[in-house]
Amino acid sequence: MQRRTFLSCLPLAGASATGLGSLATTPAALAADAWPAKPITLIVPFPPGGPTDIIGRTAAKLLSDRLGQPVVVENRPGAGGNLGTDQIAKAAPDGYVLGVGVISSLSIAPQLLPKLPYNVKTAFTPVSMLGIAKGAIVAHPSAPFHDLKGLIAYAKAHPKSLPFGSSGIGTSNHLAGEYLQSLAGIELVHVPYKGTSQAAQDLLGGQLLLSFETSLATTAPNVQAGKLKAIAITAATRSPLLPQVPTVAEQGFPGFDVPSWFGLIGPAGLPKDVVATLNRVLTEGLKRPDVAERFAQIGAEPAPSSPEQFAKRIADENQRWGQVIRDAHITLD
């Protein structure tokens, strides 16, 4: 009874009072009217503990609290986030399987991987942006460089011998590394992990000297504790979590800007009323001060949007990264 009361107060998008009778006879309207009648699965395409997981779990709680049904997070890591993203694409469009879409799977991989198992233009329903995070280039304290100039000098003196970690092939931090190599004329060795947490462990242990991080979730505290040293922020502006660390752009590469963004997506064909309800709940929830504080802890900011704005961002970023990849001759060979 409580669930029906909640849903009845939500207006059907695009429906007039006189049209409610005819709308209720359509399959999409029936599905939306009964939704959610059972727990919802939220797929996070990276392992627990990283920024995608933290943002996904925050969104899951916002939805669960408002919709009156559990929203169960399932971590499906692999292939730089593309494995879990493909599972979202292949789910039934009934509103019971949603997922976190990220820049790497939605806007970079389509330009970099010719055999991607999903078509980003037709496989998804964008619901809302969730947040934007700034990343960083970080190094183990034993690394023989302390800033970007020193890193580049070392890499030029030791070509193809300095490994750098990322959260997977085709991820935004992988592309940040490839992009920097093309601009600086250096050759590093890419070491892909299944998520940021695993890369961070090896970096802290000294098995890895250099990493391109998608957020500052673990980076900032470890830099402040002297366990890591920050080389540069990979976004256009400095981070409040590490205000003393200059950006890549400040250190000789103007225009370098590789933030990470996260959004809620579903499979293509989600009922419009389900999309409208999800968007409304997220738009309201992401404005809460406690959510902004949680995001700030990983160097991220809430960034709710309309479904149309999110769809435009995905398309615009595909165009941007396609151009970067072509101009820089970035390949996975």
From TrEMBL:
<comment type="similarity">
    <text>Belongs to the UPF0065 (bug) family.</text>
</comment>
<protein>
    <submittedName>
        <fullName>Tripartite tricarboxylate transporter substrate binding protein</fullName>
    </submittedName>
</protein>
<dbReference type="Pfam" id="PF03401">
    <property type="entry name" value="TctC"/>
</dbReference>
<keyword id="KW-0732">Signal</keyword>
<dbReference type="InterPro" id="IPR042100">
    <property type="entry name" value="Bug_dom1"/>
</dbReference>
<dbReference type="InterPro" id="IPR005064">
    <property type="entry name" value="BUG"/>
</dbReference>
<feature type="signal peptide">
    <location>
        <begin position="1"/>
        <end position="31"/>
    </location>
</feature>
